[in-house]
Amino acid sequence: MLPKSNRHLQKKGKQVTAEEKSKVYNFLKTASSWSYGYPSPTFKEEPAFEDDIEIPEEHEEIKAQEQVQVQPQISQIPAEQNSAEKVPSQGATLESIAAKIALCKNCVLCKARTNTVPGEGVKNPYVMVIGEGPGEDEDKTGRPFVGKAGQLMNMAFQGLGIKRQEVYITNIVKCRPPANRVPEQDEAETCLNYLRNQVILVKPKVIVLLGSTALKNVLGKEYSITASRGKWIEQKGIMYMPTWHPAALLRDENKKIEFWKDLKVVVKFFNKSGVEDEK
Questions:
Q1: Per residue in 16-31, pLDDT tens?
Q2: Residue 117 buriedness (CB in 10 A; 0-12 / 13-18 / 19+)
Q3: What is the pTM of this model?
C-alpha cells in the first residue's frame, strides 16, 4: 500500500526509473568489491533494468527529490572506496592476499585449477613483471613462469644481469584458463583487485607488461601491444614497459630480439636511476 501522498501515482507503479536502479546497483557493486577485495558473484552481471513508470511532467520535482535520495554521493563514500586502486586493509600482506586467492571461487577458472598462482618475488623490488595467466606447468607447481616461456624469460634475465629472485612476478589471472586460452574479460576483472593490492604492497618503480592481455587490463583497452611495446608509459609515478609475452617468442623467433631490446632498456633505466639515487 502506497503512502497517501503517493496514491496519485499508485496505478503507475513505484516511481523508480531504470537509470536510478542502475545507479543503486553499481553503487552496491562497488561497495561490495571494496569491502571484500574482489567482485562478489552476486554482482557478476548487471541486469537489464526497466522504468517502473514514466514520471509525468507535473511530478518532475518529486523525481528530482527521489534521485537525490538514491544516488550515492562521492563525498559520502570512504576514501578507500572512492579510489580506483583500493588500499589493502590494515595488516594485509602478500601472503594474506595469496591465501584469499587460494580460496577464491569467483569465476569459472576455479573449477579446473590444480593450484592458484598468486605470484612470487620480493617486496619493494625495482621491477615487477605482469603476464597473462598460468599455464600447465604453473598450474601444477603454483609458481609463475616456470614452463617453456618462463625458462626463456629466465635466460633473458640472466643475460642482462637481472636476478629473478630480486623481482616480483605475477599474472592478470591467478588460475589457468582452459587450454591456455586468453582470459575472458569477466575472469580478468575478477582478479584485478588482487593485482591492484599486490602492486600497492610491492611498490615497484618499474612494471614490465608481458603481452596484450597484461597491457590492456593494466593500462587500458586503447593500448595495442604492437604499437606500445618498447616504449615507456608513465602513470601514477610508475614507469611501464610493454613488451612481448615470452610465449610469443616461442612462436616467432623474430620477436626474441625485440624482447631482449625492451628488457635492455629497462636495465639501463634502473641502472641510471641507481646512480642518481646514490648521488
A1: 777 777 777 666 666 5
A2: buried
A3: 0.68
